[in-house]
Amino acid sequence: MSFLNTLRPGGRHGLSSREARDPIGLAVAAVNRLAQSDFIDRVGLRKQAEQMVFSTTRSGFRVATAAGRTFARAGGRKAGERPASATSTGLFDLTPTEDEQMLVDVVSELASEVLRPEAAGANEECAAPEAVLAACQEVGLSGLGVPEALGGIMEERSAVAGALVAEALARGDMGLAVAALAPGSVATAIALWGTDAQQQTYLPSFTGSEAPAAALALAEPSVLFDVLQPATTALRDGQEFVLDGVKSAVVRGAEDELFVVGALLDGKPALFLVESGAEGLEVEADPSMGVRAAALTRLHLNGVRVPAEALLGDPEGVAYAECVRLSRLAWCALAVGTAQAVLDYVTTYVNERVAFGEPISHRQSVAFMVADIAIELQAMRLVTWKAASRAARGKDFGRELALARQLCTEKGMKIGNDGVQLLGGHGFVKEHPVERWYRDLRAIGVMEGAVLV
User: Domain 4-206's class?
Assistant: First the structure.
């Protein structure tokens, strides 16, 4: 299939849907249109208008969270179940199944035709275009981790499929991939650890035609932050929990209608479902060095009250720990995809770039550097896939995940750095995308809980 029509005005997912944009988005769009007008030159307001655009898109905002939809319990559907573990053949075979390969092929086309062309603009605007998100929704990414019994598209647990999809999307752009995968991470969490009531209340929205914006909120803006010991607290008060704290790196926080918030409950980390309409919830922009298209924000919880039924999973921290592990695995897969984009780009560049009468790839120093990127990338990919395979089969994957995270953090940064180096002066300018991929790869070692497979 082709996704090019999703970016055409008047198309099914064209920009004509901007009337549904939130007030912040409308304000930014209006200011941008003003800055592009010839009228402001005639009246001498060009400098002021440009400063307004800069302040609006860079300085950020702090407002109440989006007025979310009403999540009502839906009866008549099977719920309270868990995705079944994938079957094991006993063979060490990481070859994707036929269904997984078909899914990867579709997502790869989406990444190359839709995400890649929009990546530079999304990076500058710190926002994912609506047409891109609509195209990702059309593929069904929000229901990827939800089993068929609960209205999703998978027959069994899909950690491998999730890793393959994250890798394929990141070859287009990591920031847009994170923005597209964030709602699915919440749906997957509810499918894995939600009660019957939680699944019936929330999952129908994610498996329908218009999934709500949603995100995990685990990270916090503190020095030496330990994701397993969050500073955000949850205190019992009768039949409610009271949440206080600040979460960072929350994807599209101003638009989200549902959050999965990590907080310390009785000395142990736990997950809570928090709807955007909750009193005491505020969001502010948190522009980052990389992954800018994901529109990262900070979420302020000031005495936010949620019912006892909002607790997701167990209060002993088991679900929370697994959520962290799966999130880290997703970031590893994103690193693999971005590193592959670097390799693809520099390989073409060094073969076409001519110096002293021959392609620079003929020089050993250049050829060896490209070969090192390929070797390190393959190591990252294999250990990430193995961790995903064990996760899908319900086996302990802690060791494989630790290896994958170490490799993807260290070698991913090296690949980004080498990619910039191979382009020379071109690697430092925004005319080429490698500098953006370099910044994105820096996120692997510091991000926690924005995505999940």
Answer: mainly alpha
| Bridge partner list, 441 | none
pLDDT score recorded for residue 89: 62
Return the ∠ at Cα 383 (arms to 372 and 113), rounded to 5°: 75
Angle at 314 between CA 312 and CA 319, to 5 degrees: 75
pLDDT digits (tens, 9 = 90+) for 210-256: 889 999 999 999 888 899 999 999 999 999 999 999 999 999 999 99
Residue showing tokens 């502010």: 284
Residue type at 443 in one-letter notation: A
Helix runs in 75-129, H state only? 98-110, 116-125
Enumerate the β-bridge partners of residue 359: 354
Q: Which helix (H) or strand (E) holds 320?
A: helix 318-352
CATH superfamily of 214-312: Butyryl-CoA Dehydrogenase, subunit A, domain 2 (2.40.110.10)
Q: CB under 8 Å, gap of 24 or more: what pairs does 77-80 form?
A: 77/150, 77/151, 77/200, 77/204, 78/149, 78/150, 79/150, 79/196, 79/197, 79/199, 79/200, 79/203, 80/195, 80/196, 80/199
Helices (H), 194-317: 196-206
Percent of the chain whose predicted confidence (pLDDT) is above 70: 80
Q: Strand pairing partners for 259?
A: 215, 274
CATH fold of the domain at 318-441: Butyryl-CoA Dehydrogenase, subunit A; domain 3 (1.20.140)
Per-residue pLDDT reduced to its tens digit, 183-218: 999 999 999 999 999 999 999 888 877 889 999 999
Exposure string of 115-139, with b = 16+ CB inside 10 Å and e = fewer, is bbebbeebbebbbbbbbbbbbbbeb
User: For residue range 321-371, what is the model confidence (pLDDT) as tens digits?
Assistant: 999 999 999 999 999 999 999 999 999 999 999 999 999 999 999 999 999
Q: Output phi, psi for 272, to 5 deg.
A: -135, 140
- Spatial contact of 404 and 329, defined as CB atoms under 8 Å apart: yes
- Asked whether the beta carbons of 326 and 159 are under 8 A apart, the reply is yes
